[in-house]
Amino acid sequence: MRYMIINKADADSEAGKVPSQEVVDGVGKLVEDLSKAGVLLAAEGVHRSALGARVKVADGKRTVTDGPFAETKELIGGIMVIDVRSKDEALEWAARLAEALGAEVELRRVVEEADFAPDAEVFQ
Predict the structure, then answer these.
(1) Strand order in the sheet with 2-8
(2) Residues in CB range of 108: below 8 A, 6 or more apart
(3) What φ, ψ does residue 42 adopt, rounded to 5°?
(4) How far apart are the two ends of the chain, measured CA to CA in Å?
(5) Structure-model confidence comparison of residues 24 and 122, the more confident one
(6) Are 35 and 74 in contact (CB under 8 A)?
(7) How far apart are CA 59 and CA 56, in angstroms?
(8) pTM for the model
(9) pLDDT, tens digit, for every residue of 25-40?
């Protein structure tokens, strides 16, 4: 099962500040451990929202809103995608990231083709 672990942006990351050495070391160690365990598919940070945009299309009309965006608590700071045997295993990895960051992270299962099978219970 694939899971995405999402860490939120914060005021420092939105201001373009580099994380503390403690955070860099903690996340680096986690990425190393995920790689050694063979479960890491991707680990990426994203630039601050001031360098991004939001795109909306309604009635065939495209609207682009350039960043920065006000609600920092709703912004993504980075993601990891892991492939593990169970939700419990995913939760263990997510907890390690939360500890390294000193912040809450979100864990979401990635939709797979099998989830659309007639007998799948994922969307029920």
Answers:
(1) 40-45, 76-83, 2-8, 105-109
(2) 3, 4, 6
(3) -160, 145
(4) 18
(5) 24
(6) no
(7) 10
(8) 0.87
(9) 999 999 999 999 999 9
